[in-house]
Design a protein that fits this description.
52% strand, mainly beta, 482 residues, disordered N terminus, six-stranded antiparallel sheet, YVTN_b-propeller_repeat, Immunoglobulin-like, five-stranded mixed sheet, 2 helices
Length: 482
């Protein structure tokens, strides 16, 4: 029905666009176009990591602003170690939600507090903004904390505006410091930060990061086992899967795979008995037993396997092969590939509809969405969605389809019957991944460019909150995901 693109786009034009888009991606993958350079984080041995967050300004504190020139962690012996700042301008506009002030890799040991250098401050009055005198010397925040080797500590700061402003002409920040408590399991969300070797733990109801978990190298795909209260994380840089016990103080164990596997994505069968791992480096799919935490078998799939989608009965898995332009259909019980379905160029992500009889596939190098009929295992529709589709999410309560594209802050909402865009959501950036919190009816959009997670209410289709996460955020998962 919708196989043809808009009239202004000829088939020759589409082909040219694909070539141009491939060239753009190649340039970005190299070093041009001012693409951000992600420096590999060094492996931690005797060091730990500090993350410093500033809580949102109170609603009545919408007049104050200040500029942070520097923050240092103070060891018990008086040694000061500077943090890398992520936020320097604290204003009512930037402080509507929790923000990360900065972070640092620190030697393990005891610390007495923090030191702040303030470059400037101001307060809004009836006559306009009035400059406040900043403190001449660094401001000391007494707050003892311990940095453990190979672990992270998060310190949260809440500004006391009234105590920070003296006689309406000077500013010296007064903070209440604390280490946040862990959210209840049902309110927990995780974001894997591939460039930081960490997982950001957040409270999905409060939209607040509460702690970080140090992981192995390049954490990528992640799944929750809701029943066993575990998280499984693909460690692309360590050829392993990390297991996080959510009921045992987030203790870590590791499932070893083969050298060169570079595991990318994970999927768990509904009964929790089989964990599927796509190994992008060896073109295989691993079958892992979560109980014994061991690999049972593996099968060869296509070239550069990525996303793994499991049907609701846990019988069949669909593996997207990025370089083979195909989907491998895997019988989970038999541990065998039973069919290979063709796609457009570079299949990137896919979703099953509510009935589980259609697989919708988006592509990195094709402007088309492919709708595969799983009953006949053939393409039912080929729909033009535009170049640069990056992520797709189907709301299983409505079957509405959400598609985000590279470099576009608009999330298109497609009708499940006509497969035409009927609505849209304006986000806060270009989402690299989408999921839905079913309990709070929020669409969660991971904004890898700005290192943030955006919460969007599905009813009003408006932003609810944003939180800062880590470097190169890759995937987000929440309890009660839909």
């Amino acid at each position: 029905m919708n196989e043809n693109p808009p009239k202004r786009m000829t088939s020759r034009g589409t082909a040219l666009l694909i070539v141009l888009w491939a060239a753009v991606l190649a340039v970005l993958a190299c070093s041009g176009c001012h693409a951000p350079v992600v420096v590999a984080k060094p492996q931690l041995f005797a060091e730990g990591e500090l993350f410093l967050y500033l809580e949102p300004f109170p609603r009545d504190a919408n007049r104050l602003d200040f500029t942070v020139a520097g923050v240092s962690a103070i060891k018990n012996d008086g040694t000061e170690i500077p943090l890398t700042l992520r936020l320097t301008e604290a204003t009512p506009a930037t402080m509507k939600w929790q923000r990360m002030l900065g972070s640092a890799i620190l030697p393990g040991g005891r610390y007495s507090g923090l030191s702040f250098r303030i470059a400037g401050a101001g307060i809004k009055t009836d006559e306009g903004r009035m400059a406040l005198l900043p403190p001449e010397k660094p401001v000391m925040i007494e707050f003892p904390f311990v940095v453990e080797p190979q672990k992270a500590v998060l310190v949260s700061l809440t500004l006391d505006e009234e105590a920070s402003v003296s006689k309406r002409f000077s500013f010296s920040p007064v903070f209440k410091a604390e280490i946040p408590g862990r959210p209840l399991w049902g309110l927990t969300g995780f974001v894997t930060n591939k460039g930081a070797n960490t997982i950001a733990v957040f409270d999905k109801r409060e939209a607040r990061v509460t702690e970080f978990i140090e992981t192995g190298r390049a954490p990528a795909g992640i799944v929750f086992d809701q029943a066993a209260r575990r998280a499984y994380v693909a460690l692309s840089g360590d050829d392993a899967v990390e297991v996080i016990d959510l009921m045992a103080d987030y203790s870590l164990t590791r499932i070893r795979l083969s050298i060169g596997d570079a595991p990318a994505e994970l999927a768990l069968t509904p009964d929790g008995r089989t964990l599927l791992v796509s190994n992008s480096g060896s073109n295989t799919l691993s079958f892992v037993d979560p109980a014994s935490q061991s690999e049972l078998a593996r099968v060869i799939v296509g070239s550069r396997p990525g996303a793994v989608i499991v049907d609701r009965l846990g019988r069949t898995a669909y593996v997207l092969n990025t370089l083979s332009n195909s989907v491998s259909v895997v019988d989970i019980a038999r541990r065998a590939v039973v069919a290979t379905l063709p796609t457009e160029t570079s299949p990137l992500w896919a979703q099953l509809n509510r009935r589980g009889d259609r697989l919708l596939v988006i592509h990195e190098l094709s402007p088309y969405l492919v709708d595969i009929d799983l009953t006949t295992r053939s393409t039912a529709k080929r729909v033009y969605v535009g170049m640069g589709a990056r992520t797709i999410k189907i709301d299983t309560s409505t079957d509405q389809i959400y598609i985000a594209k590279r470099g576009d802050s608009v999330i298109d909402v497609f009708d499940p019957f006509s497969l035409l865009p009927g609505n849209f959501i304006t986000g806060g950036g270009s989402p690299s991944y989408l999921t839905i919190d079913g309990e709070h009816n929020n669409l969660l959009a991971l904004l890898s460019g700005s290192k943030r997670l955006q919460f969007i209410g599905l009813v009003g289709k408006r932003e609810v909150a944003q939180i800062d996460v880590g470097d190169e955020p890759y995937r987000v998962v929440v309890a009660g995901e839909r």
